[in-house]
Amino acid sequence: MLKAWRRISLTAKRRAVQLGSLLLLHSSWGVEAKWLCLPVLNCHSCQLAWFACPIGVLVHYAGLHVFPFLALGTVVLLGVLGGRILCGWVCPFGFLQDLLHKLPGPKFRLPAWTSWIKYVVFALTVLLLPFFLGAETLASFCRFCPASALQVTAPRLVASGAAAFSAMTVAKLAVLALVLLAVTMSSRAFCRVLCPIGAMLAPFNYVSLWTIRPPTAHCQHCAACREACPEGGRPGDRIAAGVAPNRALDCIVCHECQKVCPEANTSGVSEVLPSKPDTKDALAVSSEETLE
Amino acid sequence: MTFSRTIKERLAAAALIAMAIVLLLLGALRTHKVFDPVTEEFGIVGFQLISERELVEDATFGGVRLDKGQLYTTYDRAQPRGKRTCPT
């Protein structure tokens, strides 16, 4: 079983984990653990959800003027252990975005500055506005969260019909439609621009215990990793500088850059278990590259 | 160029893990006073002490509200609770 798992490609493994987590996170028919925050975009108001969404908890705690010890402790701990690995491997909404981006149609990359918007969204709609206006404010993130619209608002509309129809319902579903349209055209557009969980976890990428080790320290600047990065990042720049590619705010630790590296495919190095280059040789190459 | 973590990164990670453990311990030990307006007698409102865990669940389902710096329950806590629906 373990041998068979090792033979599967990295992308297939990621899809399997994403599918598994989608099913597991929505399998609560009775027992729940909604006191525990799992930092992925998954609405706790969904009847089948096991865990609480940290954004929902932070919004409501801000409204109640209570410091969220448990929620923050969980987010910090998971953030330090894996950085944004939950975004890349576990988040059901991330999985949906990955699938939608496979649809044919026009594709484009968002400009780099758009990735800063999510920090403003996090500060305003998760912390400041709920703190000053109360958790039930129409300006809180939960009011226009696309995951909540997909998991709660849309099913309720189907079940209750016109009774569940309101201006807020229309607005929430319109945001969902726009987000779904955007992610078909630009890979992980929601994660990149709006996701407050991504904004919360992103700084942990710099210190997380999880390290992506590229198969080579001798980067050829072929840009294959840049093309493969679902977040539109530049992992090659960091590899060339001797820094692990996941040491960046926008990395979702998907390992695609490691997989597509031509060095991994030509030298027979495993895509998951990287070689450790000789430090002296690597440093020599590094200084040569710098001189060039 | 071995892509390994630097000393600074290791120290920061250790400090953050320690901070997370402290936050989780404080969260596990902390209790909150939740007042119940229904129990008011002679101007005195009764309250219950609930754990942080309960408050996480209550807060996300609109089970408590803030009024003049105090938390008030919005439902009868003596009744058994089933799955709760979204307040938003």
Comma- or semicolon-separated keywords:
heterodimer; A: 292 residues; mainly alpha; two-stranded parallel ribbon; 16 helices; disordered C terminus; B: 88 residues; alpha+beta; 4-stranded mixed β-sheet; 2 helices; 36% helix
Structure characterization notes:
Chain A has 292 residues and is an all-alpha fold. In chain A, 54% of the residues lie in helices and 2% in strands. Chain A is built from 16 helices and two strands. Chain A has helices at residues 2-7, 10-25, 54-64, 69-82, 85-89, 92-100, 117-133, 146-160, 167-185, 189-193, 196-201, 224-228, 235-240, 256-260, 262-266, 279-291, and strands at 33-37, 51-52. Chain A has a two-stranded parallel sheet with strand order 1-2. In chain A, helix 3 (54-64) runs parallel beside helix 7 (117-133) and helix 8 (146-160) packs across helix 9 (167-185). Chain A is globular, with a radius of gyration of 20 Å. The termini of chain A are far apart. Chain B has helices at 7-29, 52-60; strands spanning 31-41, 44-51, 64-67, 70-73. The longest helix of chain B has 23 residues, at 7-29. In chain B, strand 1 (31-41) and strand 2 form a beta hairpin. The model of chain B has no long low-confidence stretch (mean pLDDT 86). Chain B is α+β, with helices and mostly antiparallel strands and 88 residues long. In chain B, strands 2-1-4-3 form a four-stranded mixed β-sheet. Chain B is elongated, with a radius of gyration of 20 Å. Chains A and B meet through strand 1, helix 3, helix 4 and helix 16 of A and helix 1, helix 2 and strand 3 of B.
